[in-house]
Amino acid sequence: MIELNFSNMMDEIIGRSGLSESTIKDFNKTAENAHAKIKKRLRPELAFLDLLYQDTPEIKNIAKYIRENTENFLLLGIGGSALGPRAILEAISPFHNLQRKPRVFIYDNVDPRTLKNILSFADLKTTSVNVISKSGSTAETAASFMILWDEMKKVLGGEAFRRFIITTDPEKGNLRRIVNEHCLMSLSIPPGVVGRYSVLSPVGLLLAEVIGTDSNELLKGARDMHEKCTEPDLLKNPAYLFGTLLYLMDKEKKRNIDVLVPYADSLKPLSEWFCQIWAESLGKEDKGLTPYPSLGTTDQHSQLQLWMEGPEDKVLIFIRVRDYGSDIKIPGVFKEVEGLSYLSGHTLSELIMAEEEATELALAKAKRPNMTIIVPEINAYHLGQLFHFFELSTAFTGFLYEINPFNQPGVEEGKSLTYGMMGKKGYEEKRKEVEAQRAKRDRWVI
Amino acid sequence: MIELNFSNMMDEIIGRSGLSESTIKDFNKTAENAHAKIKKRLRPELAFLDLLYQDTPEIKNIAKYIRENTENFLLLGIGGSALGPRAILEAISPFHNLQRKPRVFIYDNVDPRTLKNILSFADLKTTSVNVISKSGSTAETAASFMILWDEMKKVLGGEAFRRFIITTDPEKGNLRRIVNEHCLMSLSIPPGVVGRYSVLSPVGLLLAEVIGTDSNELLKGARDMHEKCTEPDLLKNPAYLFGTLLYLMDKEKKRNIDVLVPYADSLKPLSEWFCQIWAESLGKEDKGLTPYPSLGTTDQHSQLQLWMEGPEDKVLIFIRVRDYGSDIKIPGVFKEVEGLSYLSGHTLSELIMAEEEATELALAKAKRPNMTIIVPEINAYHLGQLFHFFELSTAFTGFLYEINPFNQPGVEEGKSLTYGMMGKKGYEEKRKEVEAQRAKRDRWVI
Questions:
Q1: Neighbours of A307 (CB within 10 A)
Q2: What are the tens digits of pLDDT across the range A188-225?
Q3: Which domains does chain B have, with CATH numbers?
Q4: Cβ-defined contact of A108 to B298 (cutoff 8 Å)
Q5: What ipTM describes this predicted complex?
Q6: Is the pTM of this model over 0.95?
Q7: DSSP class per residue in B57-103
Q8: In this predicted model, what pLDDT tens digit does every residue of B319-352 receive, in sequence order?
Q9: Residue of A303, A365, A423 with shortest CB distance to B413
Q10: Residue B142 and residue A355: Cβ atoms within 8 Å?
Q11: Is residue B382 annotated as part of the catalytic site, yes or no?
C-alpha cells in the first residue's frame, strides 16, 4: 500500500509553520460532514466511486482487437480524456513508441503542426482511433475526429468504420449519435462520471489494455485504497487527511500552492493529471488551491530555490518510490577526482532516494511544510491506488470548501466566444464582442 | 519581431484589477536604476549578454562530427544544462526521434528506469555523449557521466574517448580536469555565465547544430531582441516592460503567480525553461514570483477554471503563434450533426487562434489580468528572440526586487545533506542529521 508521511506538516517538527495534532483532531467534525456527503452519494457525480467495481470484458475485447489488427493507436481527447490515459502510458510503459507496438499517440490539442507530424509517421492503414469526449461536443476533439474520419475513409474505405472506437455517454450527445448511425465500436462513460474523475472508466482502461496492462490491477489498487478510506476519522483515512492538511494550510497559514513532486520521470504526467483534478474541482468562487506539476530530482535545479526561500505560499508533496524495478551501479571511475569519486559504488536508486530525503529535510529545516507519499513500486496496482487517493481526496476537499467539486462554470465564456468566432449558430453576438474588443486592444502593443 | 500586447493588464480595459498608464510612467525612474546596472555590467554574471556576439565555428565543427559519425546523441545535464536544449529540440524538431537522426536523448535526472531504457535502445557503438555542467560537480550529471564513461569504454574501447563532448568552465572544475587528462573534446561556458542564462552558449547551441539548426539564427534573433531593448523607457522596451508589469502586479495587486501559456505543443518545454529562470532568479529573501508552466488549448480543459474563478493571485501570459507553418482543413463531414458541422471549412489554425483570443477576452471580461506575446512563426530566429527577451527581463526584474538574480543559495542545504548520505568527505555531520531526523518522523505516517 502507498503511505502518507506527514511529519513535516506538524508543528512538532517545523514549529509555528506547522499544524498541531489538536487542530487536526478538532477538525474531525467538519470532516464527518464531508464524509457523510460522500457516503450518502449526495451528488450524482460521485458515481466515479462505482467504477471500482466494474467488469471489463468489453474493454479487453476491443483492446485485443486493436492490438491484433493495428500498429498505431491514436487517442483523440483533451483534459480528463487525455491526462489520465497519458499518466497510465508513461508510468507503465515509458518510451513506449521507441520499443513497443501498437505505438500510442495522444493528440490533446488543435496544434496543426502536431497533427501533421502524427499523420506523417502513423500509417493510417494500420491505425486505430479512440475518440473520447463525455459530452460529445468538445470542439478540439470534434475537429480532430472530423479530420481523421475523412483521412481514414480515404485510405481505408469502408474498413475505416471498424477502426474507430468512440468513448462517450451511453445515450446522449453528438458522438453517441454518430456511433449509432455508422455502427461504430463504442465504450460508455457512465452517467454522472465527470471527465476529470474518469481515468478508471473506459477512458483510461482501454489504453491500459492496449499497452498490455491488466485493467483489473488498476481497479484492484483503487478498491484497496477505497477500503483504507472508509472511516471519517482523519488520522485513519489518508485521502481525507491529505485534503484536510492542504485545506488547513490554506486557511490557517495562507499556503495555497500545492506542488506535487514525484521522484520518477514516469510519474510526471501523473502530476499533470493531479493538477487538472485539483485545479478544476477546487478553483471557484474566488477560492481554491493552485496545484503545481513538478519532478524530482530535476526541479531541484529549477524550482527548489523558490520553494526554500521564496514567498511562504507553498506546500510540497513528494512522491517517493521505494523500488524502481531496475537499478544501475555507479562504477569506480575517475578515482583521482575527489569531487566525483564519492559516488562510486552507490547506485542511481540510492542517489535519487538520498536526494528526495535531503530535499524534505532541507525544507523542514527552513520551516517549509512538506509531506511525502511513499509508493512501493510503479505499477498498475499502485497507480490505481494513487488515482483513487487523489480523486477521493479532491471530492472530499471540495466539500470542505463548500463548493461543487464536479462542475466547471468558469470555462463556458471562453467556449461561447470561440463558438462565435467559428460561426456556430446562436453565437453571433459573441463574435461581434470579440471583434469590438480587438479594436480596443491596438494601443497597448510594443 | 515578437510583440507584446499588454492591453488586458491596463485599467482602461480591466478596470481596477489593471494598472494605469501613469503608474507605469512613474515607474520609469526605478527602471532607469535597474537599467544602469545592466548597462554598466554591474555584475560579472551579466556576461550572458556577450554570448550574442560569439563566433560558433568550433560548435559547428563538433556538431558536424557528431552528425556524421553517430546515430544517437545523449545529453547529460540538469537544470539550465538541459531545459534550454530541450526547449530548442522540441520547438525546432518535435517528435524528433521518430523521424530524424541522430536521435536525441536528454537525461536530466537520476531515475534508474529512464537510463536503463535509454541504454536499451541507444546502441552505444553509434552514440555520442555531451556532458554539461558549468561547475563540473553536479552530482546527478556526474553519476550519469561515470556510468556512460564505463559503458562506452566497454563497448568502444579507446574509441570511446572520441565520443564524449564536455561542456563546462574553460579552466576550473572536475570536468575540465578530466578533459585535460583524457584529451576529450570540449566546449566552454564563458566565466560569469550562470547555468540558467546559458542556453545561447554552447549548452544550447551544440544541440541546435546537431539537429541541423543554424545556431547563428538563434543568436541573430537574440541580437535583434537586444537592440529593441536598449532604451530604459519602459513603453519602448518590451523586456523591461514585461518584468515591470509582473513586478507591479505583485506589489500592487498581490498577484504573484505568472502562468506562461504558449498555444503550441512544441513550446511547452520553453515554458518549463522560463519557469527555471524566473523561479530560481527571483525566488529569494521571502520574495519572488512563482512561474507556472502551461499549454494552450490543452490547459483550457485543466487550469482555465482556476484562472477564471480561483483566487486572484495570477497573471496569465499567452504566447500566440501567427503562422504554424502548416495547417489542416476540417472537412465537411457529419453535416447532419449541427453540434459539430459549424467546424467544417475552418482550419486547425483558425480554431487554435480563435481559442487563444477567446480565452484572453474571457479572462479580461472577468477582470483577470493577462498579456500576450505574439510570435510570427516558430523557428530558430524567433526562439532566439524569446530566450533573450526572458533572460534580459529576468535580470532586470531581479534588480527591481533588489535581489541578486544570479545566485541560488537556497539549494545548498539539500546538496550538503545529499553529500552526507552519499558519504562525501567532510559531510559526516550531515549524514547524522538525516538519520536523527528519520527516527523523529515515524510517528506521523498512515
A1: 29
A2: 999 999 999 999 999 999 999 999 999 999 999 999 99
A3: 3-39+219-400 (3.40.50.10490), 49-214 (3.40.50.10490), 409-440 (no CATH)
A4: yes
A5: 0.97
A6: yes
A7: HHHHHHHHHHHHH-SEEEEE--THHHHHHHHHHHHHSTTHHHH-SSE
A8: 999 999 999 999 999 999 989 999 999 999 999 9
A9: A365
A10: no
A11: no
